[in-house]
Amino acid sequence: MPELAEVEVVRRNLERWWVGRRASKVCVFDDALLEQGDADELREAMGSRLDDASRRGKYLIGRFATAQSVVFHFRMTGKIIRCDDAQPKYARLAWRIDDVGWLVFKDQRRLGVVEVFADERNLRNYEPLRRMGPEPEDVTVDHLRGACSDRRMLKTALLDQSIVAGVGNIAVSELFWRLRFTPEVKCGQLTDEDLARLIAEMPTYFDEIIDKSMGDEVMYVDEAELDNIFSVYRRAGQACPRCETVIEKKRVGGRSTYFCPRCQGE
DNA sequence: TAGTCTGTTAGACA
DNA sequence: CTGTCTAACAGACT
Questions:
Q1: Are A209 and A5 within 8 A, CB to CB?
Q2: From CA A166, how far away is CA A154, in angstroms rounded?
Q3: CB A133 within 7 Å, strand B
Q4: Which of A38, A51, A74, A135 is deepest in the core (most CB within 10 A)?
Q5: Nearest nucleotide by C1' from A249 CA?
Q6: Strand B and A3 CB separated by under 7 Å
Q7: pLDDT tens-digit map of A188-211
């Protein structure tokens, strides 16, 4: 589900709800979500004070007073919400923060994961974090050129988390529409100027989506079809906000891509 | 029933 | 070695 923007919204919520506090109760409903570490270690970490909530790409990282850290990845349908009920539908993990409520890791498809690490060194050795490319605001033209061969599609390169951290399938459609890139453009077809525009647009795009998504519960686009905040994503058949041409959908790199055939032509 | 889905990864193939 | 595609993970929805 979530891309960088939605994970960042959850991170900011945890900053308000959880940092500086400890959980008074931890309920593991589905321990299959733990790959590194077990439920006892998770209870030990969460039972201590959360010192810091950070984000790296689409990963959310909590550091605790015990020196342990907990990493969340929401995959397709995971999220963390605050509610008064410890076990709403699809709850896989819940912890109680007194005076705040229950924080619940909900995940309908159960693809999300939670990892527990004993200390900073173990966290840093976690392979997905070790492999992660720079955050969008730290990407340079030289880095992109070096990481993408000329014949590779820009879309698949951007979805590769080792090249840029946090970009997902929605962001690609939206960025390409903003920049008027054709959906199947190859890296080699872009000038340095084009890449510089892309690099400048990424943080702008994510900041705008974060602002529009802020709230106690992030709504994914399929849960809020009538309030779709995107310009082209999931808008096939509707008018392009720029030129009124009908938006189309096609598969690029195995994933749905939405685009305006006029704005984003050759 | 078949197709789809905001993510990631392993294996097949050109 | 590179890049792309598919399936798999698991479940709900159309």
A1: yes
A2: 15
A3: no
A4: A74
A5: B4
A6: yes
A7: 999 999 999 999 999 999 999 999
Name the nucleotide nearest A4; use CA and C1'. B6
Question: Which residue is catalytic, options A22, A58, A92, A235?
Answer: A58
Nearest to A264 by CA among A168, A163, A154, A156: A154
The spacing between the Cα labelled CA in A119 and the C1' in B2, in angstroms, equals 47
Contact A123, A153 (CB under 8 A): no
* pTM, to two decimals: 0.95
| Residue A166, pLDDT score | 97
